[in-house]
């Protein structure tokens, strides 16, 4: 994966389809302990949003690579007092080897990447969540042996997860269906980008019909109906999104061997039922574990071995 050394990952589209598949292969080998890469480097985590899985999985992954982690809580840095992003970026560039950022706007992430020479990773913005999709694809690949030809259905808000899933599926030869209410569909620019990547090889379908989207699908995916920063809208969204709940009735129209994924945290009883989340088709906990393996492969590739 020498082609990735020193690069940023702000979007899945920053990778070529071949690089994405190679990254998944490296994650598989590292998870099976067939490859042992060491990189004695320092990772900075600059997170403006709450995080459990992303923060912990990046930290453990970096420690397992032999590196160190500095948690740069914005509330105790000058970022919280309005220091310009370009100033912070150029200072952190002198201290760190790599930086993962979780923030609201994609343009703020891009600003860091423009002013810092070290690799910058998108650990979630309102537009995309590429690291999560690396784990999602790794999980699906473990379950079905290959990704090409599979169909993934995402049900719910057309948010950052929907955007990154469209790109990841298109790049790996998977059909992707996004079922969302009319006023909550995914970013139109990302839809067009995904369709361009897919070409004639796979289908990118946007619909308001959850049943049609789920029929025959191999992977059923959902996320919370109100993301971070949208908490005030949560109660109003429930009746709008109720038809998109992943429950046993909906799952019955999917492929009989379909798996269920959720990026977590989950609001049990809203976007997904307890019965499905704890059921035999759920791969949610494997998916959560795979955050660490996928990001470990990503860090090793962007940093290079010692």
Task: Give an overview of the whole structure.
It is found in: Cytoplasm. L-ornithine binds at residues 160, 223, 227-228. Its EC number is 2.1.3.3. InterPro entries: Asp/Orn_carbamoyltranf_P-bd (IPR006132), Asp/Orn_carbamoylTrfase (IPR006130), Asp/Orn_carbamoylTrfase_sf (IPR036901), Asp_carbamoyltransf_Asp/Orn-bd (IPR006131), Orn/put_carbamltrans (IPR002292), OTCase_ArgI (IPR024904). Keywords: Amino-acid biosynthesis, Arginine biosynthesis, Cytoplasm, Transferase. The protein has 306 residues and is an alpha/beta fold. It folds into two domains: 2-128 and 291-303, 3-Layer(aba) Sandwich (Rossmann fold); 132-287, Aspartate/ornithine carbamoyltransferase (Rossmann fold, 3-Layer(aba) Sandwich), CATH 3.40.50. It has twelve helices and nine strands. The strands form two sheets. A five-stranded parallel β-sheet has the order 7-6-5-8-9. Strand 3, helix 4 and strand 4 form a beta-alpha-beta unit. Helix 1 (17-31) packs across helix 5 (130-144), helix 5 crosses helix 6 (160-172) and helix 5 (130-144) packs across helix 12 (284-303). The longest helix has 20 residues, at 284-303. The protein is globular and about 55 Å long. The mean pLDDT is 96.
């Amino acid at each position: 994966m020498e082609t990735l050394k020193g690069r940023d990952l702000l979007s899945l589209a920053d990778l070529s389809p071949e690089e994405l598949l190679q990254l998944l292969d490296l994650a598989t080998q590292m998870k099976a302990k067939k490859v042992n890469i060491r990189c004695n480097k320092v990772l900075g985590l600059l997170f403006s949003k709450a995080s459990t899985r992303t923060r912990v999985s990046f930290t453990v992954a970096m420690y397992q690579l032999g590196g160190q982690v500095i948690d740069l809580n914005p509330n105790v840095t000058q970022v919280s007092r309005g220091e310009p992003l370009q100033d912070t970026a150029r200072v952190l560039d002198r201290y760190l080897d790599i930086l993962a950022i979780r923030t609201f706007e994609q343009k703020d992430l891009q600003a860091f990447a423009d002013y810092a020479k070290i690799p910058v990773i998108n650990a979630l913005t309102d537009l995309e969540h590429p690291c999560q999709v690396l784990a999602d694809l790794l999980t699906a690949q473990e379950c079905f042996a290959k990704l090409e030809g599979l169909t993934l259905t995402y049900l719910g808000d057309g948010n950052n997860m929907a955007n990154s899933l469209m790109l990841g599926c298109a790049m790996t030869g998977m059909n992707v269906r996004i079922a969302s209410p009319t006023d909550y569909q995914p970013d139109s620019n990302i839809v067009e980008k995904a369709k361009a990547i897919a070409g004639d090889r796979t289908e990118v379908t946007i619909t308001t019909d959850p049943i049609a989207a789920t029929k025959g699908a191999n992977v059923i995916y959902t996320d919370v109906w109100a993301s971070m920063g949208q908490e005030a809208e949560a109660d109003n969204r429930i009746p709008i999104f109720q038809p998109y709940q992943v429950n046993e009735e909906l799952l019955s129209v999917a492929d009989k061997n379909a798996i269920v994924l959720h990026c977590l945290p989950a609001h049990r009883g809203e976007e997904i039922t307890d019965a499905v989340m704890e059921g035999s088709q759920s791969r949610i906990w494997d998916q959560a574990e795979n955050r660490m393996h996928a990001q470990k492969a990503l860090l090793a590739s962007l940093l290079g071995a010692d």
